[in-house]
Structures are given as C-alpha cells and as structure tokens.
Amino acid sequence: MLATLVDSPFNKPGWVYEEKYDGVRMLAYKEGAKVTLISRNAIDRTARYPKIAEAIAEMKPDTLALDGEIVVFDADNVSRFQFLQKSDGRPTFAVFDCIYRDGKDLRKAPLSERRVTLERSVKPSSNLILSARLDADGIKAFEIAKKKGFEGLIAKDLSSKYVSGRSPAWLKVKVRKEDEFVIGGFTEPTGARHFFGALLLGIYTRGKLGYAGKVGTGFNEETLKSLHKKLIGLKRESSPFDSDVSEKNVTFIAPKLVAQIGYTEWTGDRKLRHPVFLGLRDDKEAKEVTRQEKR
C-alpha cells in the first residue's frame, strides 16, 4: 500500500500521523521458523538483513506478514537513506502494518484493528521497532517532524483497509525534499575529480523521460569509482531524454539506474535546485519513477 503525496499538513478526526521513514520498503513473511524479506520490486533481501530476519523468526506467531521500512538512524535518531545505502550503522525494521497473522488475512480489517494486532505481535528490540506516532493532531505532528528533521509524516485513515497500490487513505507530507530520479547520462570530470563530473537526471511523465537537471555533489572517491563501473556498462549513443540536453561532454546511458536525490526545490523550468546525491536504489524499477501530482 502506497501513500499519496499532498501539499500541506492537515488534521482530520479518525486519522493518525506517523513518522515517515527514509529507507527501503520491505514486506516480511514468517512461516514457522522461516522468514523472508521481500522488497518492493519482489527481490528477496533476507540475506542482506540477517539480524532483522532472526528477530522476526523469534516472534511468537507461527505465520505473519508485516509491512515496514528498513532504515539506519543517525546520532539524532533520524533515519537517513544514505546511511543505509552505505551500510553505515545498524539496520532496523520500522514496522507499521500487520496484514496476516496465524492464518487470518487482515487486509480487509480496518487499520485500527491491524495496529492492535501489530502491537500484540511485535516486541521492539535493537533490530525491530513499531512506527512512531507523532501526535494526535496532524498539524502538531508535522511541526514535530519538522523540528526533529524527519523526512516527513504519513497520515493514515484508521478505518481504511489495506489495498495494493497508491491510496488516498494514506497521505504523505514531506519536510525534507527527497525523490527518486532516473540516471540518463554523465559528464566528463574536470579539475581534481575522477571518473565522472555529474549525473544527468530524469523523471518519467506519460512514458517520456524528462530532463530534471544534473547532480555533481554527494559523492566520495569510492562512490565515484563504483558508480562509474555501472555507468560504463550502460553506455548508448542517443539521449534517453525527450528534450535536448545542453550540457557539454556528455555520455548517455540506458535509463536503468535509479538515484535518491535530496534538493531544495524545483525551478520554474522544472529543474532541481541544489541537488545532492544520496545513493542508488535497487528496490525500484526506472519506469516506476514518475512525477507524482499532489492532491
């Protein structure tokens, strides 16, 4: 179940307001002692997060399906995608929904009931936490998220069922501006920079990859080297973008790689202002990276 982006915080009766985590979405399945962690694009990630799988295996229910986000927290207890991507810290599974337990499918049950089942099922530990509810008032919850530097908040209708796909029953409001973008090329390095200068970024709109600007910050030498290896293998002659790119000394690549980018805002000509590279995402296909229209 995916949240729909909205422009501003709000307060409604019968809704709850949770911390929006900056990590990788994951479904966890427990069948007896066997635990499987599955990413959004249906890749088995159990081996990548063995401590989380072990913690779930020790839980009392014989069968479970949990929905949550795998994150790494910084020193201020704020989740940071780049920490997770660089394996810099302890991965933690922030669990926010229980959609199956001991033979009972809970997807048609209201969120209020699913949360009770979740709290009965999950015992918080060093590798497992329950998603944090910030305040009963949505406006105050947003101010808490803003003050603490969270990515944002997720507002959820307590009466809602669990459905696949994007839903208006879950709404997200961002504090930090971060999004996924498709890498469509790179520029040559200049000065002391090695491997490449900047990445050319795009986002799909109605099936066409629009150019969103370039990002040249957020890299260290190791990142430049490892990324360059991936980029070279995807070289192509023609541009993947649907409009002209005015950058010089560009090498275009097949639009396969997805990057997480932080930025301050969109400019009037739909380019990113002050973008920073945070990491690659392997839990999302490039064609899924589309511009989300705010409600």
Fold and architecture overview:
With 295 residues, the protein is α+β, with helices and mostly antiparallel strands. Helices cover 16% and strands 37% of the residues. It contains five helices and 19 strands. The chain has helices at 50-57, 81-85, 111-121, 138-148, 221-232, and strands at residues 2-5, 15-20, 24-31, 34-39, 63-71, 92-101, 104-105, 128-130, 152-157, 166-174, 178-187, 199-205, 208-215, 235-236, 250-253, 258-262, 265-266, 272-273, 276-281. The strands form four sheets. Strands 11, 12, 13, 14, 15, 16 and 19 form a seven-stranded antiparallel β-sheet that branches. Strands 3, 4, 5, 6, 7 and 8 form a six-stranded mixed β-sheet that branches. It is globular and about 60 Å long.
Name the assembly state.
single chain
Alpha-beta content class: alpha+beta
Q: In terms of per-residue confidence, which ranges show pLDDT below 50 for 5 or more consecutive residues?
A: none
| Shape by Cα distribution | globular
Report the sheet-strand fraction.
35-45%
Radius of gyration, CA atoms, in whole angstroms: 20 Å
| Helix content range | 10-25%
Q: Average pLDDT value? A: 95
Short characterization:
The protein is of the alpha+beta class and 295 residues long.
List keywords for this structure.
295 residues, alpha+beta, seven-stranded antiparallel β-sheet, six-stranded mixed β-sheet, 5 helices, 19 strands, 16% helix
